Structures are given as C-alpha cells and as structure tokens.
Amino acid sequence: MKPKGLNSLSEVHSSVELHKGSNPAKKLMAFIGPAYLVSVGYMDPGNWATDIAGGSSFGYSLIWVLLLSNLMALLLQTLSARFGVVTGTDLAQASRRYYSPVMNVFLYALAEIAITACDLAEVIGMAIGLNLLFGFPLIWGVLISLFDTFLVLFLMNRGIKKLEIFIVTMIFIIGFSFLIELLLSRPAGLPILQGFIPHSLNGESLYIAIGIIGATVMPHNLYLHSSLVQSRNIERSPKGIREALRYNLIDTGIALNIAFVVNMAILILAASAFYKNGYQHVAELQDAYKLLNRLLGSWAPKLFALALVASGQSSTVTGTLAGQIIMEGYLDIKLKPWLRRLITRLTAVIPALLCIIYFGDRGLGSLLVSSQVILSIQLGFAMIPLIHFTNSSFWMNEYRNTTMVKLLAWLSASMLIALNGKYILELTISWYTDHSLNSFYRFGIVVVALIMVSLLVYLIIEPFVKPRIHKQQAVLSEQENN
C-alpha cells in the first residue's frame, strides 16, 4: 500500500539514483547513508550523560543494558526502514491516516515532547562542548546551534548524500576520539565481560538504565528512518523492494553496531577512569572533562570536548530533520524548508536557553539524564504503532513481519513498558506520598500517569478490537489523498 499525497522529505524524496549494474559493492554504497543519520542519535550528548552516569556510579555492571538497548534498536530501526521502503510513507504520515483525529492529537503532542527532550540534550551538549573547547559561554553555544537550521538547508540543497557524508565524518571524529581515550584509560578485561551479565535493577540503577534505553532507542529515530530510506529511487517491483530491504538491513546493522561500540566505550571510559578511582556519581560533562585531565593527561579532555561538539552538531542536524518529518506527517502542512526547520530548532533552543538561565552551568548533566528518561517513557507511543503497522498485511502485504519477528517485537515492547511502568509507579508513589507538595500537584501527577497508561493500553489493544474500522479509515484517507 502506497498512500498518495505529500512525499516525506519531498525535497530529497527518491533523489538518490541507484547503481543499475550487478556489482553488489556499488549497490551497497548507494544504499548506505540513512542508518548513519539515524545512528548519530544513538551517540548524542544525552547518551554521553547516561553512559557517564552509569559507568561512574556502577562501573561496568550496566553494559548489558547497553547491549539490550542496541538489540532493541536494531530490531525497531529495521522495522522502521522496512515500513518506509514497502509503503512509501513514513510513520507519522501512516499514524495520521490510520488513527482517529483525537488519538493523533495526543500522538503528535507526545512526539513533539520527545523531539524537544532530544533536541534539548543535543543543543546543551554542543554548547558545553564549545565552552570546554573554546571557552564560549553556554548561551553563545546554544545560539550557535540555531545555524544548524541553515547548515541542514545548505547540505540538503546539494543532495542528501552530502548530508550523509557530513554525518559520517562526525561519527569518525567521535569514534577516533574515544578509541584514543580508551587506550589511555587501560580498562580491565574481565570486569568488562562480567558487565554483560544481566542483574536486577532498583532505585538509581533503574533510573539510569531507563535513561540509557531512552537515549539509545529514541522515538524520533523511528519516524526519521522510515522517511530517510525513501530518498533512494528504488524500483517499485518485488525484486526492487527485496533488494532495498536487504541493503537497508546491512546499512542498519553496520551503523547501529558502530553506535553501540561508541556508547560502550563511553561507559567503559567512565568506569575505568572515574569509578575505579573513586570518583562516583559524575553527572556533569564539565566534571568529566576536568577529571579526565587530572587522570589521563591533557590530550584526553581535548578529545572529549572535540567529540562532544561533533556529537552535538551531528545530532542537532538529524533532530531538526526528525522534527520536520513529524510536523509534516501529523499535520500534513506545506511550509518553506527554512521555516519548517527554524520552527523545529526553536522548540529546542528556547527551552535550552531557559534551562541555562535558570540552572546556570551546574545541574545540566542531571537535566540531560532526565531528558533521556522522558524519551524512554515516550518511546512506547512510537514503538506500538510501528509494530502494529509492520505486522499488518494491509500495510505490508507479503512483507509483513514473520511470526518470530512479531514475538521479538512484542517482547521488546513488553520489556520497555515493564521497566518504564516500574519506574513511573515508584516515582508516582514517592511524589504522591510527599506531603510537602501541594495536594493539587499530587493529584495532577496521578491523573497524568493514568492518562499516559490509558493511552498506551488503547494503542496496544485497539487494532485487535477494531481492525475493520482501522482498515476503512486507511482506505478512506487514501481515497481523499488521490
């Protein structure tokens, strides 16, 4: 099924021509790119904050959470890419056509909250990196991130491949920096292997674990990937679709495993440099910078700051694209590219400025971790529709998920929802029983938690309860767009 209407990222839609010959290497090079734009979201400053907090507080013991997050990300991003290739529509567009207007209002609002939380981490992270590297005030760094809007426009006007090359360059800088820092920190081998063994999570370890999952499996990346794969001008035939699915799977596997290695390197660095030397609960990126200078010498903090700037810069670029996809997809609007991207950038820059004015340069590390917890809580509202859509023969025809993939997808969703549910329950109880809070706020907290739970339950069961109504809605929507 390929709905008509506004193409996702219309300015680059089907703009990359594919190699027509039989050389697999040349074909792969033509397909490589979308997953790398997605992967930078898996190593953005929010990831840094959670990885550093986890490594400094619990040593190597949360490596298994990173591995679990990466496996979930591989599955979900593969489903997202498959959905975009097969249907020719992105996740936001499909949700608008598939769900009721009321449900779409909630889904759009939650998606925008996730984008804001993600962009907040990226903008603040880049501002901190510029401050550490060049001494710029944090507010200057945040304002500099406004120019990312025009950087995206400049690169997109020269083709999506130019943007992908820029992002791959940033990934290389991040990876090289942490490789050198790992060699300087000399991590222990056996404790790292023991970190892959799962164990129970409670209190602070649960909070950081949820932050790691939220920072790794980001909601906006599911929207982003389903759109970016449509930049390839594939042959709309069974052979062409199968070929695109195969090469996008390779692209996803390589890019996300690179992101996993980078995240693991950050956590291992924090464990070997901070936890092992008695510097636990390192929450601020600025503190990590100073400690690296003390423990590993002057080169380590410079590389740390350089990688942080590269991470923030590349992540803000892709975050801006994701904001555009969500706004266009849910609202079906047509604005000039520079205006769309400026709006999505301002939704991050304004909160970042307010946070810096309110918090100053302290407390921003904790704010970064909190933003990733918000992402984890929002993830279910993008994950559940994606699973339903890719399970559906109506949307995916013969390319729908196999029974094994369905089981793995629902298992991943169940694990995420269970972890988030446990944390939200603990947090709600602690806030509700905190009599220092106004009774109105305590009541509001319970109401918000109940609304979120109700919406999630509705998303899970509704397609099973009313499959025919959903099908009729999608058909009518497609007819309206013809």
Describe this structure in words.
With 482 residues, the chain is mostly helical. It has one domain: Amino acid/polyamine transporter I (Up-down Bundle). The protein contains 21 helices and no strands. It has helices spanning 24-31, 34-39, 45-58, 63-87, 91-98, 101-134, 138-144, 148-157, 160-185, 189-194, 203-216, 219-228, 238-273, 285-296, 299-331, 337-359, 364-391, 393-396, 403-432, 439-465, 467-481. α3 packs across α13 (238-273) and α8 (148-157) packs across α15 (299-331). The longest helix is centred in the middle third of the chain and has 36 residues, at 238-273.
The CATH superfamily appears as Amino acid/polyamine transporter I
Structural class: mainly alpha
Put simply, the count of helices is 21
Strand-residue proportion: under 5%
Annotated CATH architecture: Up-down Bundle
Shape: globular
Assign the CATH class: Mainly Alpha
- Uncertain ranges: none
Number of strands: 0
Write the CATH fold name: Amino acid/polyamine transporter I
Please render the helix and strand layout as text.
Layout: H1 24-31, H2 34-39, H3 45-58, H4 63-87, H5 91-98, H6 101-134, H7 138-144, H8 148-157, H9 160-185, H10 189-194, H11 203-216, H12 219-228, H13 238-273, H14 285-296, H15 299-331, H16 337-359, H17 364-391, H18 393-396, H19 403-432, H20 439-465, H21 467-481
Helix pairs in contact: 3-11, 3-13, 3-17, 4-11, 4-12, 4-13, 4-17, 5-15, 6-7, 6-15, 6-16, 6-17, 7-16, 8-9, 8-15, 8-16, 9-13, 9-15, 11-17, 11-19, 12-15, 12-17, 14-15, 15-16, 17-19, 17-20, 19-20
